[in-house]
Amino acid sequence: MADFILITGDQAMFNPTFGQAIVTVRPGNLIGTGKSKINQKLVCVDGDEKKVIVPGCPYMTPQYSIPGVGMLSIESLAGNQKAKNTKSGGKPVLLKGASFKAKFQVMVPAQQPSAPSPIPDATPQYSGTGTFMTMNMKVKGT
Question: Which domain holds residue 123?
Answer without folding.
Answer: 3-141
